[in-house]
Design a protein that fits this description.
Length: 154
């Protein structure tokens, strides 16, 4: 059901985006002398570019980290459940492995998210696209936590 809702949302968003923000071959031809871009419109483009870029980055990295953490927790729980001999030692080693694995995964996810955000920032600067640099990182951080918490299942 979630995949159907996601597909419907993507189709609706792309349809709305095509009508609101038409793609033109020459951006100078879009604005004539009578309809020069306003500050509000320019701010809207910067904000939308930043939110979309950051949201995609954060959703990707958050989902990957939630999958990794879930796999780590499931492996730890199955190791504890299957060991019969030396149960205390195995449980202690499995608990230490789990406690060190989850923060390590989250640290790697943060570094990957920052590296991807910087790469997108660099690409936007190279192509002279207006955006808000800090908003990309903040949106990626929020989307990452939302995707991580949504996808974390044991």
């Amino acid at each position: 059901m979630n995949k159907k809702n996601l597909l419907l949302a993507i189709l609706l968003a792309s349809s709305v985006a095509q009508h609101i923000l038409p793609i033109e071959s020459n951006p100078q031809e879009v604005f004539s002398d009578k309809s020069a871009p306003t500050e509000w419109g320019d701010s809207l483009y910067k904000t939308a570019t930043s939110i979309i870029s950051g949201g995609l980055i954060g959703t990707f990295t958050g989902r990957i980290s939630s999958i990794a953490c879930s796999m780590s927790l499931q492996a730890t729980l199955s190791l504890i459940a299957t060991s019969d001999q030396n149960k205390e030692k195995t449980a202690l080693i499995a608990f230490i492995a789990m406690v060190t694995a989850v923060p390590t995964i989250l640290i790697i996810e943060k570094k990957l998210r920052i590296r991807l955000a910087n790469s997108v920032n660099k690409g936007l600067e190279e192509h002279e696209i207006n955006y808000r640099k800090r908003l990309i990182q903040d949106t990626a951080w929020i989307a990452s936590w939302m995707a991580f918490l949504h996808g974390l299942r044991v």
